[in-house]
Amino acid sequence: MKIRGAVAAALASAGILLAGWQAGTQVHGISTVTSSTTATGTKGSTGTGSPGTGSTGTGTTGSVGSSGTGSSGTSNSSASGTYTGTAVQTRFGAVQVQITVSNGKITEVTPLQLTDTDGRSIQISNRAAPLLRTKVLAAQSANVQTVSGATVTSRAYLTSLQAAIDAANL
């Protein structure tokens, strides 16, 4: 009987450790997928970077941050073109956005990929994307509130958006 109790306790402990480890590897349900950021336009940069709070590239080339919510250090007011953010993998599917910049201002935010693992994910994405677009266009940055009920999608959207903003050197 003691052996059976000890085995059950060991299995329960292992299960708790495994669940904690899995939860720790998925911080806020978001992990960044390594993918290149493509910039087209008069000024910009191309590449991928490590997670951080943005980049401080100056001139026409620089490093692109793949995650974070900070803004880039040097503004390039004459940037124009289309810039694609990194694809951000969530437990509900990938999220990737593209921005259109005209004279240093974000004029459009287009979602290229939104969460789509099931009908509920699609419904949440379809509700959150237009709200996030409106907030981003008003703020001209990725420093906006997440959409209530769509936190995972919002964070991934804003992470991809920040990578596109960094690519545009805004």
Topology:
Blueprint: H1 2-25, E1 30-32, E2 39-41, E3 81-84, E4 88-90, E5 93-102, E6 105-113, H2 119-139, H3 151-167
Antiparallel strand pairs: 1-4, 2-3, 3-5, 4-5, 5-6
Helix pairs in contact: 2-3
Write up what this structure looks like:
By secondary structure, this protein is of the alpha+beta class. The chain has a single domain, classed as Sufe protein. Chain: A (Alpha-Beta Complex). Helix content is 36%, strand content 19%. Strands 1, 2, 3, 4, 5 and 6 form a six-stranded antiparallel sheet that branches. Helix 2 (119-139) crosses helix 3. The chain is elongated and about 75 Å long. The N and C termini lie far apart (67 Å). The model is unreliable at 17-76 (pLDDT under 50).
Rg from C-alpha positions? Answer: 19 Å
CATH topology: Sufe protein. Chain: A
CATH class: Alpha Beta
Q: Major sheet: size, sense and barrel closure?
A: 6 strands, antiparallel
What's the SSE pattern? HEEEEEEHH
CATH architecture: Alpha-Beta Complex
Shape: elongated
Total beta-strand segments: 6
Count of alpha/pi helices: 3
Q: What's the structural domain tally? A: 1
Class computed from helices, strands and strand pairing = alpha+beta
**Poorly predicted runs:** 17-76
Q: Give the end-to-end Cα distance, rounded to a whole number of Å.
A: 67 Å
Helix content: 25-40%
